[in-house]
Amino acid sequence: MRRTAPAAPAAAPAPDPVPAAGAAGPQSPAAAQPPARQEQLRTEFPFQLPRGYVDEAGTVHRDGTMRLSTARDELVPLRDVRVQENPAYLSVVLLGRVITRLGTLPMVHDGIVENMFASDLAFLQDFYRQINAEGHTRAAVECPHCSEPFEVELGGSRLGES
């Protein structure tokens, strides 16, 4: 991925002249209101595989990052011959596109995903659905004893833990 330096900011407009002493100038409504807080969209989510991917050297890679999927990520695999021959292969190709980091591997691709343990593949498929379908990895739940509502964080939890 190529990174470039941020562009230099545009020149700021010249400030309004300062009113003379004793002159009460009208204050603009925009100046009286605090700046609006801009919400940032979280696009990458960390995870930890239940078992881990074992590379050729025997190193186990468990910690990773998955990014939100784009429409392109879901459409491109449909043209893949492997997916056309076996629709079950779709999740392997798709996960190979959206996993941005796995342990110390220099790159993650569908060949790595297809060599993962079945439990790790199931975990990643579920994690993909959580972050893309619901938009977050939190779930609203209710205590079975006192009926008090609260949220639990699902992202990054291990398979079988809730």
TrEMBL record:
Residues 1-11, 19-36 have a biased composition (Low complexity). The lineage of its organism: Bacteria, Bacillati, Actinomycetota, Actinomycetes, Kitasatosporales. Residues 1-39 are annotated as: Disordered. This is Secreted protein.
